[in-house]
Amino acid sequence: MKEEEEKNEVEDKKESKKEEDKEEETEAGKKLKEEMAKKDEEIKKVKSELDVALETIAGYKMKEQEMAKKEKDAKRKAALLEQGVEDSVATETVNKFENLDDESFETITQLLAAKKATKKLTPEDMTNETTEPKIVKDKAAVADESVLDSVEVEQEVNLGIGGEVDSAETTRAALVEFVSSRLGKK
Predict the structure, then answer these.
(1) What band does 39 get if pLDDT is binned at 50, 70 and 90?
(2) CA 107/CA 110 separation, integer angstroms
(3) Is the pTM of this model over 0.90?
């Protein structure tokens, strides 16, 4: 009987050890679950903070883009006003060509300036005595005429009809006509 009792004791010890192991496993499992829950909460908190930061950054970027657009529009409008375009027409033109890159818009204003420079007319120039308007000359142009009086011509000018057409002049005329039609001025 001693043997049986010893066997029973050994089995009891094994069972008690198994129960202790199970209890330890359940406790460890509970601790692990609690830690994972805490980590999940921390992750959610960090994600929400990140989302708020990203929204703030997006807001600042939008404001920066709006300010850059306003600055670009103001520069373009100033360039048009400098060329003698009316305020309302300048605003309309800037809005119309807002998607145009800066270089192209600068080209348009330069063409407009070239057109205005060649056609500076005043109402007094249109008199009943003459049918052709007089072109108003800048003071610098008058000074240049006095210099031109003393200049000698070294090559003869071809005044013949049907001569070679200057491609720069035809291109310039086509561009001026295009810009004039786009701006609504004919």
Answers:
(1) very high
(2) 5
(3) no
